[in-house]
Amino acid sequence: MTKPTFSHKGYHGTGEISTEDNCLHGKVLFIDDLITYEGENPGELKQAFIDAVDRYIDYCERTGKPANRPFSGSFNVRVGSDVHRDACIAASESEQSLNEFVRDCIVTCLTQRQSVA
User: Which domain of life is it from (predicted)?
Assistant: First the structure.
């Protein structure tokens, strides 16, 4: 997965170099719709990203189409039956729901990761 470079109104996008076309380009990440943009330099690329997001939101509002939101707060994870069982047991022992337990594990991991970075 490409690391996000830009963010605007909750949307995230990439910035990449095309040696074939001799230009900078990117796309909005984490949504189902395809939104791309180009620029001649980093400043233009960032502005093209912002403009693309704004045009997308405007288009969705004008047409009544719901805009894809990058993060809904829910996702499915396939972990295998043994990990699923062990997580359920650990959650129960902690007097938490499985969702609370998994959320806490993710937050702990992200916090540790940020302290290393």
Answer: Bacteria
